[in-house]
Amino acid sequence: MKDFAFRVLSLLVLYLALAALAALLIDVAVDGSSRLSWDFIRGFPSRRASAAGIWPALAGSILVIGVTAALAVPVGVAAAIYLEEYGSRSRLARIIELNITNLAAVPSIIYGLLGLGLFVRMMALGRSVLAGGATLALLALPVIILSTREALRAVPKSLREGSYALGATRWQTIWHQVLPVAMPGILTGIILALSRAIGETAPLITIGAVTFVSFAPDGLWSPFTVLPIQIFNWVSRPQPEFQVNAAAGIIVLLAVLLTMNGVAVVLRDRLQKRTQA
Amino acid sequence: MSSIVRPAVSVNVRPAAEEESRPERTATIAADRLNFYYGAKRALHDITLGIQPHVVTAFIGPSGCGKSTFLRTLNRMNDIIPGTRVEGRVAIDGQNIYAPGVDVVDLRRRVGMVFQKSNPFPKSIFDNVAYGLRINDMVRTTSDLAARVEESLRQAALWDEVKDRLHESALALSGGQQQRLCIARALAVRPAILLMDEPASALDPIATQRIEELIYDLKRSYTIVIVTHNMQQAARVSDDTAFFWLGRLVEFDRTDRIFTAPAEKLTEDYVTGRFG
């Protein structure tokens, strides 16, 4: 009886959460779909809502997230390999571990302040795509490190032993046996981190991403804006036409996110098939 | 049940005087006052024992007696467990493997290991056997590689069962086949010594029998050390037997003597099934 009650309760909570999500998506789709068109995607911002497009923000988001991935993925995975496979179980290692966990929970605007001080001012990258991507990389790093370590830890000990017993070095064992098995888990972590990064607004506003850009970024040194900032900009306009633009912008942002996740799922399934078939 | 163990037939009968000093003769593996610690816990106490070339030596004893730990000190497999420490020495062909500057990678290539639970890599059957050859750069051409893989699979009595599906996943094999694949994988790098940690404990009787027959065949070419908790198995496959108890080596002698006329009361109690 208790079991049954718990089951019903769990199901209710699940449906409630799903319903909230569905309501949100349907609302956005209803509001925004009328505005969604090729012209909207390829268009530039304008004072007239009906002429405004999202291209600079879309291109900015893709570029920035590309920079983020290029910086955060190799550094994060390498750091996790070091901590998990090479680092000793010393006191220092435990303190580092604890701090990485804490970093994952730090509010994103703090990363924005760090990015402003470190990348924009000290390293004089300016308010560029590079500075934005680097700032978001800081944000993504702890998540990538934590999930990669988790994935590495889940690789059975017997696999490592089997490799060592054949005269493999530590690096050969990691490269040939551990990483391929851990890869699906690592990919999941990367996607989670990048998905969080692509939706970030606060740190990018802090480092000075512009809110009205009439040109697409033409390189890593270019000023930029990103989708969430563009959406925020439209939402804050008083004219109702801009609200419709914001809804359409959200659809574009979701489409980018789902594409990223989709690619990751396909990659993960292929890897899993290769290692488990 | 265990008291009706049939003693293994000893083929080569040696003079009694020689038997007494046997462990000290030209042993392939010689442990000398070996102590082992997991953190502060001492798992092995002053183990001194010599293992002969081209015989099968069995380690028996109740769970937690240190037999597996000792086996793993012979290829320094315990090195990868943090917080462990070794005192004393283990010499293989006269060279102390715990001396500074010893190449552990090279050691593990000379001293192969098969584990209790078969642990094939999540790769194809071929790639499993080829792995050790590839990482150690032991073959020059792909045809050499294929030849060595076939040779190893034949030695492990697995070739006929898998020759038509070498490039299928090793995980699709049965438990017994997986374990023989792990043996083939270990043989591929041509070790001199093969350590087996309860290699048949997770297998059904038929698969176990195949592994035991394999051990019998392999001893012509390899020095084999096998840990087992199955005393019938020790009696069937081994020439020498060492009995461990609470981290100490209680008795080490020819297998038939351990099972029929042990010197120690403790050994007798164990092999007759009075405890353990």
Rounded radius of gyration of chain A (Å): 22 Å
How widely separated are the two ends of chain A?
41 Å
Q: Which strand order spans the largest sheet of chain B, edge to edge or round the barrel?
A: 6-7-8-3-9-10
Which pair of protein chains has the largest interface, and what are the residue counts? A-B, 23 and 29 residues
SS class of chain A? mainly alpha
Bulk shape of chain B: globular
What's the CATH H-level superfamily name of chain B? P-loop containing nucleotide triphosphate hydrolases
Find the structural class of chain B using helix and strand composition: alpha/beta
Share of β-strand residues of chain A: under 5%
The domain count of chain B comes to: 1
What CATH architecture label of the largest domain in chain A applies?
A: Orthogonal Bundle
Number of domains of chain A: 2
Order of helices and strands of chain A: HHHHHHHHHHH
How does the major sheet of chain B shape up? 6 strands, mixed
| H/E element order of chain B | HEEEHEEHEHHHHEHEHEEHH
Strand content of chain B: 15-25%
